[in-house]
Design a protein that fits this description.
Largest sheet: 4 strands, antiparallel
Organism: Tumebacillus flagellatus
Radius of gyration: 35 Å
Strand order of the largest sheet: 5-10-7-6
Protein name: Replicative DNA helicase
Number of helices: 20
CATH topology of the largest domain: Methane Monooxygenase Hydroxylase, Chain G, domain 1
Structural class: alpha+beta
CATH class of the largest domain: Mainly Alpha
Number of domains: 3
Number of strands: 10
């Protein structure tokens, strides 16, 4: 089992090393002793970008003179240093010789730990293009490896990873390569989690210093994220429809071992894709929280800046007195600070009217004994508080009822959990009206993390209505052994009985939820 796990982890090792090899010539530039006053790696990447720019439609391919001109202007702009045309030509010749390896192919030797053999990857970054007869200059163009290198360094490549994985998954499902499809879904889930972590890091940066945050850049980023999110959500829906159609096609075929294995794998892909889609949907909530945080932080920054940097007497009152500002302008200045309902007249006789005098009443100490007696009765509690305490107690019982059996099993359905109860307990649970909204809230909380640090627990507060997370934290504080559950996922049962009619009422139905630990499927 461990050997299979390692083999899966090393799948595609050769292709990954080829992708790394393309960057090796650039890093090798930093080891050169000549031109140490310049960052040759940055200049080398700039030369590759220049060649790419000339390869675009309508452009002439780049030659030696173009590279020399680019290096001369770049050094003047970046380093503030002037070099002659001859020096720029020498530098261009040196850079092109290094990036072209003097016309020979680069040979990147490495140990393939997947095949346990030493392998060699041969590639070019720059190839010869057309030959200009009049000047005798050879023009240059990027090879496929050079183009791949530049595209992988673009920021948009990072933003489109989810869309690229979705397109790859579609092709794998259409071709029936379900093993690779499952791995692609796992990669897709990793991309979504990394995007959520990036948003969290952005939130932390805003909390530390909102003044360094560009509102214009934020608005442009938010618009781009929303557009990309809508496309990805639509693609998720199309993938689910494709999986459903593919599964139906296999089920209509003649039943066999191969078809049965394909259907099982498709079910596994579908379940994992649903988890990734749920995680992706939470990105919208994260982005809304980010937007609210930015606005609140900017507002707090403006208010605190006004409080700390504006002295009303020095900045406003002194200039008014020194410049003899008219009363009308003074009124306009202080009008925003005044109440909206201002009385235009004041009756001076009210100063001589009877004034209400506050009567001081001494507080009487309570004579209530420490132990309740027949003569003393406690204060009646608020009925709403009583009902909330009763509901919270029942919710804690429901949490124990569901998650205690899961500590000894990998996966359980709601039908399995209720079937293990005695008849009297089962009757009380299924006929309790608060049991059904409890299940809905539990499903909305999925995935449920049972390993919360103290800081996270302190942030979860009690509320009047949806306080299930707070009750879960209370349960973990009382019974820490529940932390062994890790992360529990709650989903609607995909196989077998999907809906249950539990109570005596005919109209009371509930989905047959399945509870399982993350990473384990049934």
């Amino acid at each position: 089992m461990e050997v299979l796990y390692v083999r899966d982890a090393l799948a595609g090792f050769r292709d990954r090393m080829k992708n790394i090899a393309a960057f090796w010539p650039l890093f090798r530039l930093r080891e050169l002793r000549k031109y140490q006053e310049f960052d040759l790696m940055a200049l080398g990447l700039g030369v590759l970008l220049l060649i790419l720019e000339h390869m675009l439609i309508g452009r002439v391919e780049c030659d030696h003179a173009d590279v020399a001109r680019f290096l001369r202007e770049g050094i003047r702009e970046v380093y503030g240093q002037e070099i002659t045309e001859e020096e720029s030509r020498d530098l261009a010749s040196y850079m092109l010789a290094q990036l072209r390896n003097d016309g020979r192919a680069f040979e990147f030797v490495y140990r393939n730990i997947e095949t346990r053999e030493e392998e060699k990857h041969v590639f070019h970054l720059i190839e010869n293009g057309t030959y200009h007869v009049a000047s005798g200059q050879i023009r240059f163009k990027l090879s496929d490896a050079g183009l791949d290198l530049l595209f992988k360094t673009r920021e948009m490549y990072k933003e489109l990873r989810i869309s690229i994985s979705q397109m790859l998954l579609r092709q794998q499902i259409e071709k029936g390569v379900f093993e690779d499809a499952l791995r692609t879904v796992e990669t897709l889930g990793l991309d979504v989690r990394q995007l959520r972590e990036e948003i969290e890091r952005m939130k932390m940066g805003i909390k530390r210093d909102v003044s360094q945050f560009s509102l214009t850049k934020y608005e442009a980023m938010l618009s781009l994220i929303k557009e990309q999110f809508d496309k990805e959500r639509q693609m998720f829906e199309e993938l689910n429809n494709l999986i459903r159609e593919t599964r139906d096609n296999f089920e209509r075929k003649q039943s066999g071992e191969r078809e049965e294995m394909a259907i099982n794998r498709l079910v596994e892909v579908s379940q994992r894709l649903n988890q990734v889609q749920n995680l992706h949907n939470k990105l919208l909530v994260d982005k809304l929280d980010l937007q609210e945080l930015v606005l609140e932080s900017l507002e707090e920054g403006i208010v605190s800046g006004f409080r700390s940097k504006v002295n009303f007497e020095r900045e406003f009152l002194d200039p008014l007195m020194q410049n003899h500002v008219s009363l009308e302008n003074v009124r306009r200045l202080i009008e925003p600070l005044m109440s909206l309902n201002i009385r235009k007249r004041f009756n001076v006789h009210k100063a001589f009217a009877p004034q209400p005098v506050q009567k001081i009443v001494e507080e009487k100490t309570s004579d209530a004994p420490d132990v309740p007696t027949d003569e003393w009765q406690p204060v009646v509690e608020d009925p709403k508080v009583k009902l909330k305490n009763i509901r919270d107690a029942r919710y804690r019982d429901y949490l124990r009822m569901i998650f205690e059996p899961l500590m000894f099993d990998q996966s359980l359905s709601l039908h399995d959990i209720l079937g293990a109860l005695d008849a009297e307990k089962l009757y009380d649970v299924v006929n309790a009206r608060d049991f059904y909204p409890f299940l809905v809230q539990l499903h909305q909380m999925s995935p449920i993390n049972f390993r919360l640090d103290s800081e996270t627990r302190a942030k979860i507060l009690d509320s009047d209505e949806t306080n299930l997370p707070y009750l879960l934290v209370q349960l973990l504080n009382e019974e820490p052994e529940f932390e062994v559950l890790g992360t529990v996922l709650v989903e609607v049962e995909q196989q077998g009985e999907r809906h249950l009619r539990l109570a005596d009422e005919e109209t009371w139905t509930v989905s047959n939820f399945r509870f399982y630990k993350e990473g384990l499927y049934v």
